[in-house]
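Structure, all two chains, one model.
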Amino acid sequence: MMSSEERLHAYEVDVQFPDVSGMEHIEMFYNRSEIAKIEHEYSSEQKERLAKADHTLLQDAQLFTTALQQIVDLKRWREQDNAPPEQWWWYLDVLVSAPVVPAALPELVAA
Amino acid sequence: MNFARAIILVPMSKPNSISQDQVVAAIRSIQTKLVWKPNSASRHLAKRILRGHLTDMATIADYQQILETVLHGDHADVYIFWYDNIPYVAIVDMVHQSCWLVMFSLNGVLESAYIVERPDLYLRKEHIVFVDSLKAVMS
């Protein structure tokens, strides 16, 4: 079991590699969902790092989605796991195809 | 458990199927030679190092040594992942107390090889079919 800091570090690394297999991105999403459970316990510095990593993921969403679409049916994964909409990372393909940035993510856009 | 060579692995809601012989041939191929997608090995290695799954000084040979361990593991299990009616073989085994997953296409080209934190959650999906232990599949 990873510590909260290890989870954050893993996420920070994972968002730097949009070009590896889409299967690994699924693992990243699971980790991000675990972070969502504990991020309220993060320090200000950790929250800032998390926001930065989220921003990177969103910024490169098209690249991540391209890798996912080569080997993963993301819709099927999120449906099987009942991923809630607030876990937006499970909907990266939807975000990519959206005409505007969702209002739920203003702080990420501003980051 | 021995498999009949003609056994068909059919995931739910999937029209396609593959034979045991195809799975065995893919595993034999990658056991004989690890083949990466063009220019992908260095990126996978870099990520594994940054994630701390390999030491800072690890080389592609070190990475591949772990994959070899998985691909010949006495306790390894074999799964089939389906995507868009295309099957991929995944071999999963514990190495140094971590669950490594090595995934490759039927023609023996590596898709990825990484540590799965929670294999039970990750592998229990309707489009992922557990086949058997590696030993049983290859016997």
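Residues 20-32 of chain B form the longest helix (13 residues).
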